[in-house]
Structure formats: structure tokens, C-alpha cells
Specification:
2 copies of one chain form a homodimer. In chain A, the strands form 2 sheets. Chain A has a 4-stranded antiparallel beta sheet with strand order 1-8-3-6. Chain A has 190 residues and is α+β, with helices and mostly antiparallel strands. The first copy, chain A, is 51% helix and 23% strand.
């Protein structure tokens, strides 16, 4: 059960068997059915979620009362509302399973003590956060520098699995399109 | 000279006098005139820059050969091309002084060894990175959820000092406006 998360961590840092054991003792295994909530808007985020299997989306309700998707996460990715974790305030966003999903939660309340015992894990999380920041910065760059169609083609080439796996209206929301516009783009492709 | 950076770090973590000394030994003081480059596109980013005094902008050249500003940084903020630092590849963006600017560079080549000697600094940088990620995520949310005018008003209320300090055409670039549109918005305000 711990194989995926330990394999992922080993790509970045080296842990001793004792350190791996300590980490595993601090993880909570959770299973969600499709449409279950990992986090609901208005509640405080409990910690960082590592996706073992499945797919989730992170969204907020915008002023037009539509769901605006800001992130997806699949196997071997972490997801959380870092804003809520950082401030301790209730979350503005919701994280919901799109498929049956299994995760490990690293509870925020365990994190500081675990990092003191296993400093390499702090290095690992700093690298993951740096990657997430770079991805968010790149995404901002794409929004300013690509047409909507270019952005869709680019996203498709980077993450072809998403195009198959995620309902079309969610993909449209993530890219800031109407579902109709995305539909026309996909039709053009063939 | 080290007062500002040490004060900033003390807001997040506690360092012993010896640890502060180690940090200071690893910093390089640099001074730039207005329009000097801290980083030029095509070169590899040397490390993280802490602004002691001054103001810089980070931009890339977009496909229309315009400068697209993606970040500003002023006193007590860090700036770097995290993408280049993470991958070791040449940077796609440029960091340039808008005013006479003094910085401390924490060279990337010193970072790993320094973090081993002073683990609290890794905690500090992880927190700074988390803040930067949250800011980038919020900015993505604003782009999808606010009109251009709302985004300008919001930015003005969060960072009133920028409105005074940064040339109007740079502010327009950062917000994704034409200078003419920003000019009309500012005129409306009065």
C-alpha cells in the first residue's frame, strides 16, 4: 500500500528504513467514492493528500455561481488547499473525487514533528512545492501568451491522459472555456 | 546591512547567532543601477535574490515580441526564476532593476550545504515557497473570476505602493492590459 508514495519520495530524497517507517505511521489511508469530498469549502484543510489511485478536482464557486476548476490531481500527485493550510483559515475551495479514489493524508498537525524527526521529508516537500509554484507560474504565462486554442493544444500535449479521463465540461472549466467552445476545438482536431 | 534579511527570517523561524553567521557568510551583496539585469533570458539563474532596497521586475518576451511582466519584487521579497533553478536550464525570463537596487544573492550552489548546516533555513524557504505558490494560485483565480477592472481595483487595494512606484506601462503589462485601458481605468477613479 505504501509502495507508490515511497517510490515517489525516493525520486527526490533518500530515507532510511526507519525514516520511511516513521512517515508511514503518520499517514492516514482514506478511500472516497466518486463525488465524495476530500475537502469542502468553508472547512479547514486537514493536510496534504497523496493520490494513490484515482482522480480529484479542486474548484471554487465563482461569482456567477459556476464551478471554476483550478486543479486536477491523479496518481502520484499531492493536492491540498495550501492557502487554508498556511493561514489556518477555512478553505474557499472544494476538493472532490471524480473517480473512486484512494489517498494518504499527511495531517497538518503531524507535519512539524515529523519534519523534525525526518528532515529529508522537509526537503522533499520543499521540492514538491517548488514544482507546484513553477507549474502555476507557467500556467500564468500561458494565459497571457497563448490563444485559447493554443492553450488547449498545449495542455493536451502535456497531459494526454487527462483529455481521456476527465469529463469535457470539467476540462473546459479548468481552461476557462465554455463547454461549447471546447467542443468546437475538439471537433476541429479530427 | 544584514538587518533586513535577518528580521525577515525571524518572522518565520528561529536561528542561533551561529546559524545567522553561517547564513551571512553564504550571501553575496550586489548593487544594480536602474535598468541593470539581475538575470538575463538565456542564462541560468544563479540563485535566490533578497531585495534589501529597490524594485525589480521579472518578464519574458511574448510571441508578439512584447515584454510580458510576470512578477515585481520590492524590499523584503525574494525573487528568482524557480523554473531555471529547478531544472538547471537557461532561463526563459529576465529580471531587471526598475530602480537602483541592492540585493543579497543566496547562490544555488551554496544552498544544499547551508540547509544541511542550518535546517531551519530549509523550513523558512519552504514557507516562502508556499506563500509564493498561494499567491500564484490566487492570481489564477482572479484572472478567471474577475473582470479586468475588478482585477485592477483589487491589485491597487492589496499593493497601493506599487501603483505609485511602478511605471504605468509595466503595471498594464503585469495585469495583461494595454496601457490605454489602464489609463482609462485610472482616469475613471478620479
Amino acid at each position: 500500500m505504501y509502495r507508490e508514495i515511497l517510490d515517489h519520495i525516493r525520486k527526490y530524497v533518500v530515507l532510511t528504513p526507519e525514516e520511511e517507517e516513521l512517515l508511514c505511521q503518520n499517514l492516514e489511508y482514506k478511500k472516497y467514492h466518486k463525488k465524495d469530498f476530500l475537502l469542502e469549502a468553508g472547512k479547514t484543510c486537514k493536510g496534504n493528500y497523496f493520490i494513490i489511485r484515482g482522480c480529484v478536482r479542486q474548484y471554487f464557486i465563482n461569482k456567477k455561481l459556476n464551478e471554476q476548476i483550478i486543479n486536477f490531481s491523479i496518481e502520484n500527485w499531492w493536492i491540498a488547499d495550501q492557502d487554508s493550510l498556511m493561514t489556518g483559515r477555512p478553505s474557499a475551495c472544494t476538493i472532490q473525487a471524480i473517480e473512486e479514489t484512494e489517498v494518504f493524508l499527511l495531517p497538518e498537525k503531524n507535519k512539524a514533528a515529523l519534519f523534525r524527526q525526518v528532515p529529508s521529508l522537509e526537503t522533499y516537500f520543499a521540492l514538491i512545492m517548488q514544482k507546484a509554484f513553477v507549474a502555476a507560474q507557467r500556467r500564468l504565462g500561458y494565459i497571457f501568451n497563448m490563444t485559447d486554442e493554443e492553450r488547449f493544444r498545449h495542455f493536451s500535449s502535456l497531459f494526454p491522459e487527462f483529455i481521456q479521463r476527465v469529463p469535457q465540461y470539467m476540462l473546459a472549466s479548468y481552461l476557462g472555456f465554455t463547454p461549447q467552445f471546447l467542443s468546437r476545438l475538439r471537433a476541429k482536431k479530427h
